Amino acid sequence: MILSTHAVVGGAIASLVPSNPVLAAVTGFASHFAIDAIPHWDYPLPPISISKGADNRSLRSNGALIIDLTSIGVDACAGVALAIWLFATPASASVIALGATAAIVPDPLQFVHSVYPQEPLVRLQRFHEWIHAKRKLAWKLGVSSQVAFEAAVTVFASAMR
Fold first, then answer.
1. 120: cis peptide before it, omega within 30°?
2. Exposed site from 17, 20, 110, 149, fewest CB < 10 Å?
3. What's the pLDDT at 35?
4. Other C-beta atoms within 10 Å of 108: how many?
5. Whole-angstrom Cα distance, residue 111 to residue 130?
6. 8-state DSSP, 119
7. Residue 137 phi, psi dihedral angles, 5° rounding
8. Single pTM value for the model
9. What is the pLDDT of residue 63?
């Protein structure tokens, strides 16, 4: 899933428990794995590898890496902003942002694992690879299905509040 989808789902979950930031963070984090099990599309990141056995310790800074990091940053920030816009009240904005951010964190941890392959990152990476959907969707279907999924989660969370 793209990071903004994870953020919207994490924000939606947090909106259901706005007075419990720990539960919002833990369930947001867990939601990442649940929705990664759904077949989806991920945008390519050619210079960065998170596949099995990836080793990014020799990653070099170049134009392609800057473009990828910019894409990741825009995606993550847009997702957190969208989650806040959709679900936050003045009193719950920080918890929504926490849930949205926690839902994104497992993906950067894959990169951290590729640079520092130690426990508990080894087990987390193994679990992430195991649960991640093996079937990839073409980008048009993948993007549209993620937008539809975000809309459904938004409607459901709004109805539950």
1. yes
2. 20
3. 95
4. 13
5. 16
6. T
7. -95, 150
8. 0.90
9. 86
Over the chain (161 residues), what is each successive 10-residue block's mean pLDDT?
95 97 98 94 77 75 87 96 97 98 96 91 93 88 90 90 77
From 59, 80, 64, 113, select the one nearest 14 (Cα to Cα): 80
Residue environment code for 5-23, b if the CB has 16+ CB neighbours within 10 A, otherwise e:
bbbbbbbbbbbbbbeebee
Helices (H) then strands (E): counts for the chain: 7, 0
pLDDT for 153 equals 92
Query: 135 CB contacts (<8 Å, ≥6 apart)?
Result: 39
Query: Taking a C-beta distance cutoff of 8 angstroms, is the pair 49, 56 a contact?
Result: yes
Nearest to 99 by CA among 8, 2, 14: 14
Give the list of residues 6+ apart from residue 37 with CB closer than 8 angstroms, or none. 131, 132, 133
Q: The tokens 């007075």 sit on which residue?
A: 19
- Rounded CA-CA distance 104/111 in Å is 12
pLDDT of residue 29: 98
Q: How far is Cα 29 from Cα 62, in angstroms, rounded to an integer? A: 31
First-to-last C-alpha distance (Å) of the chain? 25
**In this predicted structure, what is the pLDDT of residue 25?**
98
pLDDT at 27: 98
